Amino acid sequence: MMDMLGGMGGCMAGMGLMGLLGLLLLAGLVAGLVSLARGSGRGGQTATAGGGAGEDRALTVLRERYASGEVDHAEYEQRRTALGDREWAR
């Protein structure tokens, strides 16, 4: 009879361990979703009137297009001025 209780105790401990593992997995899933939701708001920055990271990105794209020959010098200067790039002003 004692052997039977020892066997049941091992089974109960295994079930407890599986329950704990399930809770840890659920907590990790929730933390991952929260992290994903918080990070998605940062990726879609756009240019604003006050400047910021979106405006820097617009200037970077403009410079890349100019370097690859997609836009000529006159169009580059016009768009750069419109974006308010004073750093490269001559």
Q: What are the main properties of this structure?
A:
single chain; 90 residues; mainly alpha
Topology of helices and strands:
Elements: H1 2-43, H2 53-68, H3 73-82
- Compute the average pLDDT: 77
Contiguous low-pLDDT stretches (5 residues minimum) are: 44-50
N-to-C CA distance: 94 Å
* Content of β-strand: under 5%
Element-by-element helix/strand order: HHH
Would you write up a description of this structure?
With about 90 residues, the protein is mainly alpha-helical. The protein has a domain at about 50-90. It contains 3 helices and no strands. It has helices at about 1-45, 55-70, 75-80. Helix 2 (about 55-70) runs antiparallel to helix 3. The chain is rod-shaped, with a radius of gyration of 29 Å. The model is unreliable at about 45-50 (pLDDT under 50).
What is the gist of this entry?
By secondary structure, the chain is mainly alpha-helical.
